[in-house]
Amino acid sequence: MGHEMDFDKYIRTIPDFPQPGILFRDLTPLLADASALRAMIGRLIEPYRASGVDIVVGMEARGFIFGSLAAWQLGAGFVPLRKPGKLPAAVESVSYELEYGSASLEVHRDAIVVGHRVLLVDDVLATGGTAAASVELVRRLGGDLVGCAFVAELAALGGRARLPAAVPVHSVLTF
Predict the structure, then answer these.
(1) How far is residue 122's CA from residue 140's CA, in Å, rounded to a whole number?
(2) Which of 38, 60, 62, 136 is catalytic?
(3) 62 catalytic, yes or no?
(4) Contact 139/167 with Cβ under 8 angstroms?
(5) What is the CA radius of gyration of the chain?
(6) What tens-digit pLDDT sequence spans the chain (175 residues)?
(7) Which residues pair with 55 in a beta bridge?
(8) Would you tell me which CATH number, out of the four given (3.40.605.10, 3.30.70.260, 3.40.50.2020, 3.40.30.10), belongs to the domain 50-174?
(9) What is the maximum alpha-carbon separation in the chain?
(10) Element (H or E) spanning 53, and its range?
């Protein structure tokens, strides 16, 4: 991309949200700034430009934003991974554990075909539960996962270790 951008000034840190002890990394100032957003998408997809990506998958909800823009830049399609009950056709579903309780993600069964080269995109890699579940969905449908790309990684939470070692993980920012 040429010049380096200081993305830190576009990330707002909010203490004790959504609960005490959590430092929330708010990316909405980044989204609101056209040049910062464009530069971020460039950095996000940089390692995958020559990977022949067919499909970008993004997790509800912020993964939709970054994933759609990444797909546009890569000339790829976009597939949303949704919360249960949102997709109208036949779905593949996976459940996973969260810090408090569990969650599920769904994808249309016909959204990814065997051999599709897939890039998974989300805003933040934290504990890795959502990302690992998403990898599982892509693999169940026969997608060839070329990588996982995140705007930010909360390294102390160890999410990277929950992803398959064979899959390249790229985070633009690390906190």
Answers:
(1) 19
(2) 62
(3) yes
(4) no
(5) 16
(6) 445 789 999 999 999 999 999 899 999 999 999 999 999 999 999 999 999 999 999 999 999 999 999 999 999 999 999 999 999 999 999 999 887 789 999 999 999 999 999 999 999 999 999 999 999 999 999 999 999 999 999 999 999 999 999 999 999 999 9
(7) 77, 118
(8) 3.40.50.2020
(9) 45
(10) none
Give the domain ranges of the chain. Answer: 50-174
Decide: 33 and 39 in contact? Cβ < 8 Å.
Answer: no
CB 84 within 8 A of CB 108: no
Contact between 57 and 107 (Cβ < 8 Å): yes
12 in catalytic set:
no
What tokens does 76 get?
């790829």
pTM: 0.95
